[in-house]
Design brief:
Shape: globular
Structural class: alpha+beta
Number of strands: 20
Number of helices: 6
Oligomer: single chain
Bound molecules: zinc ion
Strand content: 25-35%
Radius of gyration: 18 Å
Helix content: 10-25%
Distance between the termini: 55 Å
Strand order of the largest sheet: 4-5-6-7-8-9-10
C-alpha cells in the first residue's frame, strides 16, 4: 500500500490503499488547498520528476532541498559534527544518491523539526538513518504518519548534545521550535528558525506570522513570547527556512528591532 504525499504541503501520510480524503494540514487556516483541489503523489512518483540537491551553507552546515521546487519549497539543514550529525527540518524526497552522500559525511544521528509544515517524510528519513525524531508534544495532533522513532519532548527547551539546544517559541504553531547552534555563525552562534522566526526579503529583518500564505498576523503577546524565548542565547546569524534567507550578521539585534516594529504596527 502506498504512503501518499500531499502535493501542496509535502506531508507524507500513513499507509492507505486509497488517497486520504483531505489533508488536515492544508485544510488548516495556516495553509491552503491548491487551485486544482487536493492532489496526492508518492515518493516513487516524486523521484521521477525531482532530484535532491545539497549545498554547503557554512563550515559544518549543509542545505538540502528538491529541484525543481516542490510543495512549500523549504530547504532542510544538516549540521555535521563529530558527536553525530543533526538534520534540522525535513524535505519530502530522499533519494539513493543523497543517502550515499550523507553517509559519506557521517550519516544522521537525530532529526529535529521546527513545526508541522516541515514534518514531510520525516519517518522515511528516520528509517533510512535509524535515528530518532524530536518534535514538540504541543504539535502532536499534526503528525500524519506516526512512528516509534518520534520522541515528543515537552517544556521550553531541550539539549541535543553540546552546543545544540531546541527552544520552544510557539507563535506560528503552539510547539513552534527553533534550534540554537553555538558553533554556528562561524563560531558566534546561529539560530535555525524555520518559519518560527521568518527571515524576510530584506535580510536585515525577520517577521512572525500565524499564517504566511493567508497573511494572518500573530498577536503582540505571542511575538513577545517568541523573542523572549531566544533572548538568553548568543547568536550572530539566523538561517531561515529557504535558500538565501539568512541574516548573516547582527541577527540578535535584527530580531529585537523586527519585533519592536511588528508590535508597534499592531498597536498604532
Ligand atoms: Zn497538505
Ligand atoms: Zn509554516
Amino acid at each position: 500500500m502506498p504512503f501518499f504525499v500531499c502535493v501542496t504541503c509535502g506531508t507524507q501520510f500513513q499507509e492507505t490503499t486509497a488517497p486520504p480524503a483531505t489533508c488536515p494540514i492544508c485544510e488548516d487556516e495556516r495553509q491552503y488547498v491548491g487551485l486544482q483541489g487536493q492532489q496526492w503523489t508518492t515518493l516513487e512518483q516524486l523521484s521521477h520528476t525531482h532530484r535532491s540537491v545539497i549545498r554547503l551553507e557554512e563550515a559544518g552546515l549543509y542545505g538540502i532541498s528538491l529541484e525543481p521546487s516542490f510543495a512549500i519549497g523549504q530547504r532542510a539543514l544538516l549540521i555535521t559534527r563529530p558527536e553525530g550529525n543533526l538534520l534540522w527540518d525535513c524535505v519530502p524526497l530522499i533519494d539513493d544518491g543523497l543517502v550515499q552522500l550523507i553517509r559519506g559525511i557521517g550519516g544522521i544521528s537525530a532529526i529535529a523539526i521546527s513545526h508541522p509544515h516541515y514534518y514531510t517524510s520525516m519517518v522515511e528519513w528516520s528509517r533510512v538513518f535509524d535515528c530518532p525524531i524530536y518534535l514538540h508534544e504541543a504539535d502532536r495532533k499534526w503528525v500524519m504518519r506516526d512512528h516509534a522513532a518520534i520522541d515528543f519532548w515537552s517544556g521550553d527547551s531541550k539539549t541535543l548534545g553540546p552546543g545544540l539546544t531546541l527552544i520552544r517559541c510557539g507563535g506560528h504553531f503552539d510547539g513552534g521550535t527553533v534550534l540554537h547552534w553555538s558553533e554556528g555563525g562561524s563560531g558566534a552562534g546561529a539560530l535555525l528558525t524555520g518559519d518560527i522566526i521568518q527571515v524576510v526579503q530584506d535580510r536585515r529583518w525577520v517577521s512572525f506570522m500565524y499564517s504566511y500564505p493567508n497573511y494572518i498576523p500573530l498577536s503582540a503577546a505571542s511575538v513577545g513570547n517568541v523573542t523572549a524565548a531566544v533572548e538568553p542565547f548568543a547568536y550572530e546569524r539566523i538561517y531561515g527556512a529557504f535558500w538565501g534567507k539568512i541574516v548573516s550578521t547582527d541577527a540578535k539585534a535584527a530580531v529585537r528591532r523586527s519585533a519592536d516594529r511588528y508590535i508597534q504596527a499592531l498597536q498604532s
